[in-house]
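Annual report, structural modelling task.

Input specification for the nicotinamide-adenine-dinucleotide complex:
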Amino acid sequence: MSKVLITGGAGFIGSYVCRKLLEMDHEVVVYDAFVHYISPLKSILKEYTELRFQGIADQIDFRRGDTRDKAHLRRVILETRPDRILHLAALPIADLSNRHSEEALTSILEGAVNVLEVLRDVDFVKRFVYISSSMIYGDFEEIPAPEDHPKHPKDIYGGTKYAGEVMTETYSRRYGIPYSIIRPSAVYGPYDVNRRVSQIFVENALLGKQIMLYGGGHQTLDFTYVEDAAEGMIKVMFHEKGDGKAFNITYGRGYTLRELAEILKTHFADLDVKIVEEEDVFRPKRGALSIEKAKSLVGYDPQVSLEEGIKRYLEVYRDLDVFKNHL
Ligand SMILES: NC(=O)c1ccc[n+]([C@@H]2O[C@H](COP(=O)([O-])OP(=O)(O)OC[C@H]3O[C@@H](n4cnc5c(N)ncnc54)[C@H](O)[C@@H]3O)[C@@H](O)[C@H]2O)c1
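The model returned the following structure:
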């Protein structure tokens, strides 16, 4: 049995990791600042933290704290003595990172370096897992993109995530900190509230609103169901062969936004889809990532196709009052 401290553990992905770790009988400490990235006045699903932790909240040691507050972070790590740290806490959205670049730098980079600074001085943490992003690659030059693909991030989010990777490797080389790096992509599923494209499409479909396909809907993403992403993070965190390496943790297949809209149309025949040719030129051109390394070294085996993931997402949301009243 391990004790895992998850920075950003109260978030969308973190909550699924918490649930899985508890099912495996591990102890869980969540270190989280409980940040709202979307104005509470605008968010449709207001009670998302309760929903994420229904049935498990009392089994978790929740510590409110900001990774930018190094002294407090150090105190909590020394008090709780975890043997693994999963570092998810970060400003998680590319658009917001460009608009709030100062916050992106402190939240993504300084936060990660602060954890590494504490880890210089302790020997009880057996693995630090840094959650990066597939945005570090920039435009994909090879599809599926392997982990050694060139790193040419096109925006502040990808650049700061990549800087965090470099610092993780540097601290490890200099101070012997055991680490893994994980690059997820387009994670989706119930209780994401950061208004990524999958959430906007699913919620608009449920509310009978139009969905817009920018760039003609040709943008391709490796959509990853949140349960697969959480499972992959746990596999990397505990596996001996996860040490000192970077892994893509995605579904391993690219779907265009048009294909996502088509999947939704199988559930909502009247879905109103508008094609808009205009596109964001700073959005990297992406597609599938290679997951062969994670499959062969740590036994990662994602199970949920986009068709199945959307079905599961809708099954959960159709029961929520906020959407039921619109159906
Ligand atoms: N969701 C995706 O598609 C995706 C893809 C690639 C990478 N990631 C990365 O995964 C991580 C989690 O993303 P998510 O989708 O669960 O986002 P989320 O916003 O749901 O969760 C992030 C959590 O981190 C907390 N947090 C943020 N800054 C903090 C700080 N300075 N100190 C303490 N807590 C802080 C927030 O309160 C929140 O609970 C992020 O690092 C994100 O960049 C996500």
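The mean pLDDT is 96.
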